[in-house]
Amino acid sequence: MTMAESQEWLTDAAGALGVPPLSAEQIEVLLDVVRVVAHGVARPAGPLAAYLAGVAVGRGANPATVPAVLAALVTGDEL
């Protein structure tokens, strides 16, 4: 699947879920945190971290800080 096809699928998925589509920047940030978690913890933790990020944002967490919080848990960096 190409990136364009992935973007189309994500847009369709967002519509089906009744949420706005992800911006290119949001996709890049989320893929980065999934990569950090998958490589720093375990592969299965990557997509699960993305799910947790979505739940957190859905419950009112700041979408601009959630990825950094998850990455900091892996790297040990302070926020």
Provide an overview of this structure:
With 79 residues, the protein is an all-alpha fold. It has helices spanning 3-17, 24-40, 45-58, 66-75. The mean pLDDT is 94. The protein is globular and about 35 Å long. It has a domain at 22-75. The protein is built from four helices and no strands.
Highlighted features:
79 residues, mainly alpha, 4 helices, globular, DUF6457 domain-containing protein, DUF6457
- The share of residues in extended strands comes to under 5%
Q: Which ranges are low-confidence, i.e. pLDDT below 50, for 5 or more consecutive residues?
A: none
- Number of helices, where a helix is a run of at least 4 consecutive DSSP H or I residues: 4
Helical percentage: over 70%
Which radius of gyration do the C-alpha atoms yield? 13 Å
Structural class: mainly alpha
The biggest sheet amounts to: none
Provide the residue-averaged pLDDT: 94
Distance between the termini: 35 Å
Structure summary, number of beta strands: 0
What overall geometry do the principal axes of the alpha carbons give?
globular
Order of helices and strands: HHHH
